[in-house]
Write a structure and sequence with these properties.
25% strand; six-stranded mixed beta sheet; alpha+beta; single chain; disordered N terminus; 275 residues
Length: 275
């Protein structure tokens, strides 16, 4: 009888631990409607995150068949598209009801492009972020302006919300280990010294690169060019992150990249933490 009670008690403890763990996955889908035609829902069902952050949805809410996500338990869906049709846009889907949802930052030049959305739970807040790319000189200047504004915004936000996870496509490789060819890409946007310095100081302001906290291996990427068979040759860039604020350090359990998911030129990244 004592042994049975001990086993039951152990089972109850383990069950409680499972319930208290939150799994967050972030995915730049490069068009939610296109990703759905590539069996995104089956992947989502098997991956089963509690919270899913999406970037580059490229659709308005009325264009998205939400019922497929609802059937998988994502009853709380928050879409924040760009004003420009078929461009940018972010979203968060959750199995857990948040206490508050914040669409945008209140900064017009950021919000017009649908690049930030945040949900607040009891003990953690989760943001889906899509940082601009610097595809030309004009856009590179826009990216730098955005980075400065975003840094100021987050500095203020952390004073109100200390437990913050910012997931998404940062469009920046942090270190040489995060890119397949650091020498030839040294002057390419996404790996410019000024961009790398920015994300370095962003982390120094109190954020943890959760993937590197648990994984030090090279050749771990989250984006590949469609050109030159880059993905099959694993000539990629790690530009998608789940950055967690420093107060969450002791709650972080694991972080991961899921390169086998092929609904986009990106792949999902994720983190698990105790709630």
């Amino acid at each position: 009888m004592v042994r049975v009670e001990t086993k039951l008690a152990t089972f109850e403890v383990l069950t409680t631990e499972i319930k208290l763990r939150m799994k967050i996955v972030s995915y730049n889908v490069n068009g939610i409607r296109a990703a759905l035609t590539k069996d995104l829902l089956s992947w989502l069902e098997s991956t089963n995150p509690d919270v899913l952050c999406l970037q580059e949805i490229k659709a308005t809410e009325d264009q998205i068949p939400a019922e497929g996500f609802t059937a998988l338990g994502y009853h709380y869906q928050y879409w924040f598209p760009a004003e420009k049709k078929g461009y940018s846009g972010v979203a968060i889907l959750s199995k857990i009801k948040p206490n508050h949802v914040e669409k945008g930052t209140g900064i017009p030049m950021m919000d017009a492009e649908g690049r930030n959305i945040r949900v607040d739970f009891d003990t953690v807040s989760v943001m889906s972020l899509y940082l601009p790319s610097g595809t030309n000189i004009e856009r590179l200047g826009h990216k730098f302006d955005y980075m400065d504004l975003f840094q100021s915004y987050v500095n203020q936000l952390k004073s109100q919300i200390p437990n913050l996870v910012i997931c998404g496509d940062y469009n920046i490789c942090h270190q040489a280990i995060d890119i397949h060819d650091p020498i030839r890409n040294a002057n390419v946007s996404g790996f410019l010294p000024v961009e790398r310095a920015w994300i370095d100081q962003f982390m120094e302001h109190g954020f943890i690169d959760t993937f590197r906290l648990f994984n030090s291996a090279p050749h771990s990427y989250s984006w590949w060019s469609y050109r030159a068979n880059a993905r099959n040759n694993n000539k990629g860039w790690r530009i998608d992150y789940c950055l967690a604020s420093e107060p969450l350090r002791n709650r972080l359990q694991r972080a991961f990249i899921l390169p086998d998911a092929r609904h986009s030129d990106h792949c999902p990244v994720g983190v698990e933490l105790n709630d």
